[in-house]
Amino acid sequence: MYLTHVQFWILNIWFLGLSTFSGFRWASVVLYNELPTKLNYATIAEITVFAAVCVSSVYYIRKLYRDKFAMDLSNSNAKTSSNATVAYFLTRPLFAVIVALFFNFTLCGIVESATLNFQGFGKTFFIHLSASAALISVITGNSIRRLENLAS
User: Fold this and answer.
1) d(CA 32, CA 88)
2) Structural domain harbouring 141
3) How many domains does one find in the chain?
4) How does DSSP assign the chain, residue by residue?
5) The overall pTM is greater than 0.85
6) Residue 17 burial (CB < 10 Å; 0-12/13-18/19+)?
7) What is the pLDDT of residues 13-42, one digit of tens each?
8) What pLDDT digit, counting tens, does each position of 58-98 carry?
């Protein structure tokens, strides 16, 4: 992987902005609003997206710094490597959101269908959804890489 100094800082600012915005939006939904007691997929999606984007962005800021110090600047194909690296980092939060949404919608569907007289979710359930979205967003990159290795 190769990044120019400017690309490195652009990606860091991008991820910092994503994590700040999504963190505030998550807090406004989960901590400050009255959450619905009935299953509401729009609220579940909102909580999942903001938690996954926030944690994924923080994770990739850390990864950017770690990888920046380990990069070999003598790469002969630096332009292609640079563009591929930027694309890699820009798409990772999107993958995290997609996988977290799939997991949380499946989880909520299982809970709703498994109960006889479903009365709705409490506030702590939405915090658990946020935690699962955060965890999934961090492990998504490793999981995708492992699946690619199994397929090849």
Assistant:
1) 34
2) 5-151
3) 1
4) ----HHHHHHHHHHHHHHHHHHHHHHHIIIIIS---SS--HHHHHHHHHHHHHHHHHHHHHHHHHHHHHH--TT-TTHHHHHHHHHHHHHHHHHHHHHHHHHHHHHHHHHHHHH-SS-----HHHHHHHHHHHHHHHHHHHHHHHHHHHHH-
5) no
6) exposed
7) 888 899 889 888 888 877 776 666 665 778
8) 888 877 777 766 664 445 455 556 666 777 777 777 778 87
